[in-house]
Amino acid sequence: MKEYLSEDIIRGKLYDRTIIKKLMSYIMRYRLSALLSISMVFMATLMFLLGPYIFGYAIDHGIVKGDKGMVIKMALLLLGVETFRALLVIVQNYNIQNIGQKVMMDLRMELFSHIQTLPVSFFDKNPVGRLVTRLTNDIAALGELFSAGIIVVIGDVFIIVGIIVTMFLLNVKLALAALCVLPVMFVISIFFGKKIKIAFREIKRKLARINSYLNENITGMKTIQLFNREKKNYETFDSVNKDYLHEQVRYVRYYALFQPALNIMNALSVALILWYGAIRYFSDDLTLGILVVFFAYIQGIFDPIRDIVEKYNIFQGAMASAERVFGLMKESPENDYDKLTLGKGAPLQEVEGRIEFKDVWFAYNDSDYVLKELSFKIDSGQSLALVGATGSGKTSVANVLTRLYEIDRGVILLDNKNIQNIDKTQLRQIVGVISQEIFLFSGTIRDNIS
C-alpha cells in the first residue's frame, strides 16, 4: 500500500506543475465562462482604479476652485462607475461560483468512477474514512480553489499591478516613498507562507485520520460494546483529536501574527505618504487631490494583498487535497478492468457450469498463502460443500472464482476455459455468490435485489 494512502503524508513541491496542469484541464472544460470571468475581472479593475482618480480630480478641479458644477459632474460619474463595477462583480461572482461547482462535480464523478474500478484488495488495506474524505473534504477544497481562488487572485494581481502603475504615472517620487515597504512585506509573506503550508498539510492529514477512526468505530460499535472497549477507544480518539487541535492552534498562531505584520506595513506606508506628500504639497510640487488619491490607492493595494494571503491558504489546502485526489486516481484498477468499455475477454455463448481448480495458490499478503496447491473439479449440476475451520480458505475460493482477487499460481477453469480469459462482467453474472456478510444499500428491497 502506498504511503500517501496509509498515513496521508504529502510530499513534493508546493506548486507541482503536473498537478497545476491537471487542475487547469478541468477549468478548460469551461474555457468560455473562465475567459468571461477574467474579462469582467479586468473591467472591474479598471473601474476600481478610476474611482479614486475621479475623487482626486473633483478635489483639484471642483472643490479647490469652487466649481460646484464640476463637483456634481464628478459625483455622478463616480456613482456611475461604482454602480457599473458592482454589477460586474455580481455577474463575475455568479459565473465563478458556477464554474467551481461544475468542476467539483466533474472531479467527484471521475473519482467515484475510478474508485469503483479498484480491486477489493485495495479496500482491505485502506480505511473507508480516508476514501470518504477524498470524495468530500478534498473535493470541496478543490472546489473552493476554483470558485474563490484562481480567478479572484488574478483580479487581485490586476489591482496591485494597476495601482502601482497608476501611482508611478501620477508621481514617481511619492510612489517610491509609498511602495518602499513592499519588499519587507514580501519577505514576511514568504516566511509565514512556509509555516502555514506545513500547518495546512498536517491539518488535512489529521482530519482524515479523525474521519477514518470515527468511521471504523461507528461501523464496529457492536463489537466495541461487546468487548467493553468504550473507554479505551475514547482515550484513543481523545489523543487523535488533540493532535488535530494542536495543528489548528499552530495555524491560528501563525495567522494571528501575520495579519498584524501586514497592518504595520500598511500603517508605515500611509505614514510615509503623509510625511513626504505633505512636504511636496507645501512646496507646491503636489496637489491635494493627488495626495488624497495616493491615500486611497495605498489602502486599496493592501486589501488585495491580504486577499491573496487568504487565497494562498486556500491554495495550500487545495494543493494538498489535489495531491491526495490525483494520487488516488493513479491507483491501478482491477486487472483487465475497463470502466468505459466492459467487454474485454472472450464471451461465453452457453454456460454448462463445470468448474475446475488446478494447483491453485493464493495469498492476501505476500507469501502468506491461504490456498496451497488446491485442486478439485465440480461437474455441471453437481453440488459440493467446502467444510473447514475459520480462516481455512472457504470464502477465498469464492473470491478467486469471481476474480475479486487474482490467484498467484495455478489455473481456474470454467467449462474448460481459463477464467483469466473471460470477461469479468460476464463471469460475475454467471457465478452467483451469497455472502455471509449481509450488506443492504439504502433504498427498497427491489433496489437491493435488482
Automatic annotation (TrEMBL):
<feature type="transmembrane region" description="Helical">
    <location>
        <begin position="145"/>
        <end position="168"/>
    </location>
</feature>
<feature type="transmembrane region" description="Helical">
    <location>
        <begin position="174"/>
        <end position="193"/>
    </location>
</feature>
<feature type="transmembrane region" description="Helical">
    <location>
        <begin position="288"/>
        <end position="305"/>
    </location>
</feature>
<keyword id="KW-0472">Membrane</keyword>
<feature type="transmembrane region" description="Helical">
    <location>
        <begin position="75"/>
        <end position="96"/>
    </location>
</feature>
<protein>
    <recommendedName>
        <fullName>ABC transmembrane type-1 domain-containing protein</fullName>
    </recommendedName>
</protein>
<dbReference type="GO" id="GO:0016887">
    <property type="term" value="F:ATP hydrolysis activity"/>
</dbReference>
<keyword id="KW-1133">Transmembrane helix</keyword>
<keyword id="KW-0813">Transport</keyword>
<dbReference type="Pfam" id="PF00664">
    <property type="entry name" value="ABC_membrane"/>
</dbReference>
<keyword id="KW-0547">Nucleotide-binding</keyword>
<dbReference type="GO" id="GO:0015421">
    <property type="term" value="F:ABC-type oligopeptide transporter activity"/>
</dbReference>
<dbReference type="InterPro" id="IPR011527">
    <property type="entry name" value="ABC1_TM_dom"/>
</dbReference>
<dbReference type="InterPro" id="IPR003439">
    <property type="entry name" value="ABC_transporter-like_ATP-bd"/>
</dbReference>
<keyword id="KW-0812">Transmembrane</keyword>
<keyword id="KW-0067">ATP-binding</keyword>
<feature type="transmembrane region" description="Helical">
    <location>
        <begin position="254"/>
        <end position="276"/>
    </location>
</feature>
<dbReference type="InterPro" id="IPR027417">
    <property type="entry name" value="P-loop_NTPase"/>
</dbReference>
<dbReference type="Pfam" id="PF00005">
    <property type="entry name" value="ABC_tran"/>
</dbReference>
<dbReference type="InterPro" id="IPR039421">
    <property type="entry name" value="Type_1_exporter"/>
</dbReference>
<keyword id="KW-1003">Cell membrane</keyword>
<dbReference type="InterPro" id="IPR036640">
    <property type="entry name" value="ABC1_TM_sf"/>
</dbReference>
<feature type="transmembrane region" description="Helical">
    <location>
        <begin position="32"/>
        <end position="55"/>
    </location>
</feature>
<dbReference type="GO" id="GO:0005524">
    <property type="term" value="F:ATP binding"/>
</dbReference>
<dbReference type="GO" id="GO:0005886">
    <property type="term" value="C:plasma membrane"/>
</dbReference>
<feature type="domain" description="ABC transmembrane type-1">
    <location>
        <begin position="35"/>
        <end position="317"/>
    </location>
</feature>
